[in-house]
Specification:
Layout lengths: L7 E5 L4 H12 L3 E6 L2 H13 L4 E5 L5 H15 L4 E4 L20 H29 L2 E6 L12 H21 L4 E8 L9 H14 L9 H11 L10 E4 L7
Parallel strand pairs: 1-2, 1-4, 2-3, 4-5, 5-6, 6-7
Helix pairs in contact: 1-7, 3-4, 4-5
């Protein structure tokens, strides 16, 4: 059974890593998926591969921190598919396109702080702002913002990243309150450390051994561990759920 058959869903940062796994899972569930990513070659390669396999997937080059890009994304999606049913705010500045600094907060370059907020928080805000008018027309929609379990323990020399991801949860709750009357659900997934290209081997080796020891489920996390929660939040199964955060980290943080 395809739980998302015919649904039109935008995934930001969907060309690589965890975002790629999201796109593949949504396509498998029957959704029409729009990959919005700054990595144009990877986005187009993924779209072509999934289209050849029988899914309907397109790729658009989008910098989520730029309103003109995001507005065009929403407009072109609605023009091509007739509506927008879902938005996954996955795009984030973390290990791509450059590695973020891991230094005490007073040493974080100011331009890096600004870029982190611009992509991780402003980007989610702008994407919501762009798609919500189309969802209001249908009196239905699902928005899933991607945060991080680091907000519950502070992370390690990543004050700008943790702050941006905490802001995502605040945005989720504010929009859930505002948009519930329009039939729009807004929820968050907060993943733990996931083995992916966003977490290159040297970072995983340094930090993951202890993380696995602290988990209730004592193994590495993989992108496939997140897709079930994502599909649930985009499907009718979560119609009476909004403003919530699902922590998917193997039982490290039980909130």
């Amino acid at each position: 059974m395809n739980r998302l058959a015919g649904k039109v869903i935008i995934v930001t940062g969907g060309a690589n890593g965890i975002g790629r796994a999201y796109v593949e899972a949504l396509a498998q569930e029957g959704a029409q998926v729009i990959i919005a990513d700054v990595d144009e070659p990877a986005g187009r390669e993924l779209a072509a591969s999934l289209t050849a396999a029988g899914s309907e997937v397109i790729a658009l080059t989008v910098d989520v921190s730029e309103w003109t890009h995001v507005e065009r994304l929403a407009r072109e999606t609605a023009k091509r598919f007739g509506r927008i049913d879902g938005l996954v705010n996955n795009a984030a500045f973390y290990q791509r396109p450059q590695v973020m600094s891991r230094v005490p907060f007073e040493q974080i370059p100011l331009d890096e702080w600004d870029r982190m907020m611009s992509v991780n928080l402003r980007g989610a805000f702008l994407c919501c702002r762009a798609v919500v008018p189309f969802m209001k027309l249908e009196r239905a929609g699902k928005i899933v913002n991607i945060s991080s379990s680091t907000i519950y323990y502070g992370g390690n020399y990543a004050a700008h990243y943790v702050t941006s991801k905490a802001g995502v949860i605040g945005l989720t709750r504010a929009l859930a309150q505002e948009l519930g009357g329009h039939g729009i659900n807004v929820n968050t997934i907060a993943p733990g450390l996931i083995m992916s290209v966003e977490n290159p081997p040297e970072i995983v080796v340094q930090s993951n051994v202890r993380r696995v020891q602290l988990r209730s489920i004592k193994r590495d996390g993989h992108p496939r561990d997140l897709v079930g929660s994502l599909v649930f939040l985009l499907s009718p199964d979560s119609d009476f759920m909004t403003g919530e955060t699902l922590v998917v980290d193997g039982g490290s943080r039980m909130i």
